[in-house]
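Propose amino acids for all 365 sites.
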């Protein structure tokens, strides 16, 4: 008989230990506190008081001790400060990847491979005769020596150019990516926490690129009044500053980085609330937070066009739902022929995918 069977919910039924349950919550809190362990533990204590997360057998003190034993946190014996370890930083990025991009359908779309024979790092079982210009390391000496013995006899080994065989390799393309993150004050305005979802997307993207495409290059650029680079491990610690949004500075730095990369495939990922408000002209800052200033917008659009000429697509992750901000992102994306993902704060896993090259529109879950 088909139907539904209802039973009492048991939080322990999933097989997770009390430590694993608290660890999941602790990792989430660390993202909101920008890696501040003390603040995250204070929040966890308040949640424990309200919802009874622990019991007489396993308390928060036991959880903290186990965090230290398993290498998730480390305590400075001189001043007593507690900080997270590289293991925790890696775990936060991995959890962000699973939360946002986990359960993606297996597809060949997004793979940047080609099976054209040529110089590369994927060995191909096929061989071919030597041609002028082939590299020495491409020579298959076993096959070449066999050819020499067949063609010239075993006695007095001679090897001619016609005896040489070349081992083919499949060329595997590599991609250089710059990930731009908006840390302007508008990312926390109007009662909306936009920086935490932005950090989650950034950590998910960085973990995806570094684990699935380890030969690719990834640079992280943050931009407020100015733009500068940070390490991947620093994403979890990012905080919003008292900055305007100098998108132009971020794009210029990203383009400068990609110019120095030798990979032919280059791209920019930009996470922002979509409102450029600042330019640096000489040593002075031109700022306007009211609406969309065409002086600022035009510079952004011009850079989008330059990136298009340089064959650098820009993918924008839009952490805002304001119609006029989305209109700017649409104009920016159309100029670059890139892509835009509009993500709501409460459901980052679902994006409205805009593909301006094919003119198609679909929702990605």
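Proposal:
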């Amino acid at each position: 008989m088909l139907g539904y069977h209802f039973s009492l919910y048991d939080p322990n039924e999933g097989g997770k230990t009390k430590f694993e349950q608290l660890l999941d919550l602790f990792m989430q809190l660390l993202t909101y506190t920008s890696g501040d362990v003390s603040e995250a533990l204070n929040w966890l204590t308040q949640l424990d008081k309200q919802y009874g997360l622990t019991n007489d057998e396993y308390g928060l003190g036991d959880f903290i001790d186990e965090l230290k034993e398993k290498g998730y946190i480390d305590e400075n014996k001189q001043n007593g400060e507690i900080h997270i370890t590289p293991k925790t930083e890696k775990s936060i990025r991995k959890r962000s990847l699973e939360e946002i991009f986990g359960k993606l359908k297996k597809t060949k779309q997004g793979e940047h491979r080609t099976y054209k024979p040529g110089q590369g790092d994927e060995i191909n079982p096929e061989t071919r005769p030597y041609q002028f210009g082939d590299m020495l390391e491409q020579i298959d000496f076993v096959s070449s020596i066999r050819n020499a013995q067949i063609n010239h006899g075993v006695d007095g080994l001679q090897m001619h150019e016609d005896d040489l065989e070349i081992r083919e390799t499949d060329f595997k393309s590599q991609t250089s990516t710059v990930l731009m993150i908006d840390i302007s004050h508008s990312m926390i305005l109007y009662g909306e926490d936009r920086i935490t979802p932005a950090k989650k997307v950034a950590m998910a993207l960085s973990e995806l690129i570094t684990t699935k495409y380890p030969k690719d290059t990834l640079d992280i650029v943050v931009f407020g009044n100015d733009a500068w680079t940070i390490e991947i491990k620093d994403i979890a610690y990012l905080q919003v500053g008292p900055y305007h949004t100098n998108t132009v500075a971020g794009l210029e730095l990203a383009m400068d980085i990609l110019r120095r990369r030798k990979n032919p495939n280059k791209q920019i990922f930009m996470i922002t609330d979509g409102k450029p408000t600042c330019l640096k002209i000489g040593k002075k800052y031109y700022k306007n937070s009211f609406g969309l200033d065409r002086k600022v917008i035009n510079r952004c659009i011009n850079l989008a066009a330059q990136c298009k000429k340089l064959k650098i697509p820009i993918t924008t992750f839009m952490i805002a739902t304001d119609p006029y901000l989305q209109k700017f992102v649409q104009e920016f994306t159309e100029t670059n022929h890139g892509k835009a993902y509009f993500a709501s704060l409460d459901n980052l896993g679902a994006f409205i995918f805009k593909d301006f090259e094919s003119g198609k529109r679909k929702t990605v879950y």
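The first helix runs from residue 18 to 32. The chain has nine helices and 14 strands.
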